[in-house]
Amino acid sequence: MYHDVKDLVSHSDFAFHEDTPVDQKSDDDAEEMERLCLLVFDRWCEQRNVIPLAYLLHAWPISMGDSAARNRLLNTLGELRQFHPETLRRDDRLLIGQLVTMLACALDRGS
What we know:
- The chain is mainly α.
- Helices cover about 70% and strands about 0% of the residues.
- It has one domain (about 30-110).
- It has helices at about 5-10, 20-45, 50-60, 65-85, 90-110.
- The two termini are about 25 Å apart.
């Protein structure tokens, strides 16, 4: 389990080569998004950070193949950042930013 953003980034599979097949990229993205959600879930449980947990649990866990569920998670995380920024640590904001970027890219690709 990653407890530190630096540790997560050093193990991240977020960067892909152009020749990576779309299906493989989608599967890898889904796994990475799930890993990021689990990471923030664990962190917020340990910190007893109830507001972000409530937002996350409103939209996660999801079937990553479901674009409506991905969109709901994207919107929910955006609302968390907009309405409760004081509840998020710097590392949390970085992780959420990475997750939001991945969700938006996946939705743009239609996967």
